[in-house]
């Protein structure tokens, strides 16, 4: 032990350190370093940002478990929970983070979704366009190559791409948590629809049951989607923990959109996923008269109109893609005058940039025909551009000026990106009725929509959709159990499964999720800019343990985001563990000697059990 009863003079301390004759304990060494006027190297420090438990059933516990592994490995790791809106701003808009834990957006499940997620050209772009700041020229080449080919050649390219990503780790997949929901078993054939998509709600078969009483917006219900004998509308009621749709319905907003389900019901896209492939929706049909470079002619439905009664034309489609490419429309305001803040550079919309970026030009050939020209992409990839929401030019053209708050110009941001868009004017099968911020949202069927009454198109089997906000997963389940709601729209945590199973009349819905939880790295930051360091961090994560403990077995470990798709390489399948970055331990417990050796091989060293910077 260090003898604290005897003072250590500065000269004696320096002599002892210089001579190296005295063997000191760790505590004495730290004290002498302080006396000598120099400090030990700084411990590697990481902050993990994520959502609180009332906003996401798993993110906070995932982050805490990962942070504990990091601390065991000698890192200074802390978890910072914050609201969904603030997390999006910090990670997707400002890049002001070390690491984050959240789910990837659903569009990443399309292999071309990896292009905007990881291509270096988006390293400084806002939104889900490469929030990691990741740059790898070989990855760029592979991302570009998979856009130009199809069939087996594309599969081989994506195989190489996913293997390289698994080694370089721009993010670490923590696992796919199953989507767990509670539903009124008598209300609908829940197993027949995907409740993660707008199309799933439109195809939901509503049961023909007697009218019910109680609950907010509780009204009579019928299976044919028509009003009952009592004149009350058929209503589908959703319980949700995500209140953001009650305050903002801007489809371009990054920080307010967990997914596009509700805006997908308010706005039409040219095509929608159905039966495993993209099919025309607002478009009657499309064809590609040229494939190299790809050129498409899109023919719109003649009966399409906006919710305010204005006809939807090819000009609206062309306007939409011009707006997504530059929300200032070339730096002009509605009267045609040039602005000083927007004219110097385009202001693209952060959402949908990967898809709209496939398009080079869009031209309205006549009122119902649009020509799309694409650059360097195969038609099988080019059609992804048809999945963005089409916006009414007569509404959004007035939102292309620079955004201001309190009369202050906030820089290269336009009104189109900051408006809450309430009330929204879309062309979708549902239209806006009213909202109560942080409490409820009411939509109703738009009888002018082309899908209403067309069984082959799958129009809504209900008159009204109501979203009711609950404060927690348990509250969501209780709303369904009490008859106030028909289903939990947002998935709930696995801890609610016993509660759902015990309640009469409730049906437990469990589906494989299309989106993984990830640990995202800000590779612009020290240490995290080192792929060897990130690869070693990935070895501190036991995906099997996370599935068993955090997801309570309702989930699956995986190496990459394309798991469970036909594009996923066999070499990345999870057998006895992660085949690329195996866990440096066993059954959730780290082997500290293996961990230390791995970090030493990565160029780091330890000081009194603390991981510190690399060797000099």
Task: Quote the distance from N terminus to C terminus.
Answer: 31 Å
CATH architecture of the largest domain: 3-Layer(aba) Sandwich
**In the CATH hierarchy, what is the class of the largest domain?**
Alpha Beta
Q: How would a textbook summarize the main sheet?
A: 6 strands, mixed
The total of helices stands at: 19
Assign a percent range to the helix content: 25-40%
- What's the pLDDT, averaged over the residues? 86
Strand content: 15-25%
Number of strands: 25
Structural class, from secondary structure content?
alpha+beta
Tell me the strand order in the biggest sheet.
2-1-3-20-4-21
Radius of gyration: 27 Å
Can you tag this structure with a few keywords?
616 residues, alpha+beta, D-Maltodextrin-Binding Protein, domain 2, 6-stranded mixed β-sheet, globular, ABC transporter substrate-binding protein, SBP_5_dom, peptide transmembrane transporter activity
């Amino acid at each position: 032990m260090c003898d604290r009863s005897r003072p250590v003079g500065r000269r004696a301390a320096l002599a002892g350190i210089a001579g190296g004759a005295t063997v000191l304990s760790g505590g004495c060494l730290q004290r002498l370093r302080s006396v000598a006027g120099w400090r030990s190297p700084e411990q590697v420090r990481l902050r993990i940002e994520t959502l609180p438990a009332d906003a996401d059933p798993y993110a906070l516990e995932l982050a805490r478990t990962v942070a504990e592994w990091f601390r065991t490995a000698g890192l200074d790791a802390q978890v910072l929970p914050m609201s969904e809106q603030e997390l999006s701003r910090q990670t997707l808009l400002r890049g002001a983070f070390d690491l984050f834990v959240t789910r990837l957006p659903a569009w990443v499940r399309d292999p071309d979704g990896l292009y905007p997620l990881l291509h270096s050209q988006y390293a400084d772009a806002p939104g889900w366009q490469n929030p990691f700041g990741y740059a790898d020229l070989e990855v760029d080449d592979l991302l570009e190559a998979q856009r130009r080919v199809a069939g087996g050649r594309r599969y081989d390219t994506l195989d190489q791409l996913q293997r390289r990503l698994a080694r370089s780790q721009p993010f670490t997949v923590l696992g796919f948590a199953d989507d767990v929901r509670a539903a009124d078993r008598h209300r609908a054939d829940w197993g027949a629809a995907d409740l993660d998509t707008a199309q799933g709600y439109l195809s939901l078969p509503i049961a023909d049951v007697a009218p019910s009483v109680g609950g907010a917006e509780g009204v009579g219900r019928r299976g044919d989607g028509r009003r009952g004998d009592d004149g009350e509308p058929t209503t589908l009621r959703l319980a949700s923990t995500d209140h953001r749709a009650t305050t903002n319905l801007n489809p371009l907003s990054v920080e307010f959109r967990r997914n596009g389900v509700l805006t997908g019901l308010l706005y039409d896209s040219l095509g929608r996923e159905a039966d495993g492939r993209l099919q025309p929706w607002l478009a009657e049909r499309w064809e590609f008269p040229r494939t190299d470079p790809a050129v498409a002619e899109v023919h719109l439905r003649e009966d399409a109109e906006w919710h305010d009664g204005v006809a939807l034309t090819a000009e609206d489609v062309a306007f939409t893609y011009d707006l997504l490419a530059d929300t200032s429309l070339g730096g002009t305001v509605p009267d045609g005058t040039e602005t000083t803040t927007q004219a110097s550079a385009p202001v693209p919309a952060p959402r949908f940039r990967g898809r709209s970026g496939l398009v080079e030009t869009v031209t309205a050939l006549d009122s119902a025909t649009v020509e799309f020209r694409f650059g360097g992409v195969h038609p099988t990839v080019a059609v992804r551009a048809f999945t963005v929401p089409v916006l009414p030019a007569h509404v959004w053209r007035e939102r292309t000026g620079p955004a201001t708050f309190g009369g202050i110009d906030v820089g290269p941001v336009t009104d189109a990106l900051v408006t809450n868009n309430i009330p929204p004017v879309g062309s979708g099968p549902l239209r806006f009725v009213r909202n109560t911020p942080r409490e409820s949202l009411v939509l109703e069927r738009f009888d002018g929509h082309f899908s209403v009454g067309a069984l082959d198109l799958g129009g809504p089997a209900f008159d009204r959709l109501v979203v009711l906000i609950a404060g927690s997963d348990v509250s969501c389940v209780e709303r369904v159990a009490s008859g106030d709601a028909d289903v939990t729209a947002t998935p709930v945590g696995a801890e609610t499964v016993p509660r759902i199973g015990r309640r009469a009349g409730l049906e437990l819905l469990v589906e494989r999720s299309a989106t993984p939880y990830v640990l995202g790295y800000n590779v612009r930051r020290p240490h995290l800019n080192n792929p060897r360091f990130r690869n070693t961090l990935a070895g501190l994560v036991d995906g099997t343990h996370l599935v068993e403990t955090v997801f309570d077995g309702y989930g699956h470990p995986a190496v990459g985001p394309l798991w469970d798709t036909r594009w996923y390489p066999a070499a990345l399948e999870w057998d006895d563990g992660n085949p690329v970055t195996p866990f440096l331990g066993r059954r959730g417990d780290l082997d500290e000697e293996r961990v230390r050796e791995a970090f030493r091989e990565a160029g780091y060293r330890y000081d009194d059990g603390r991981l510190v910077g690399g060797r000099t």
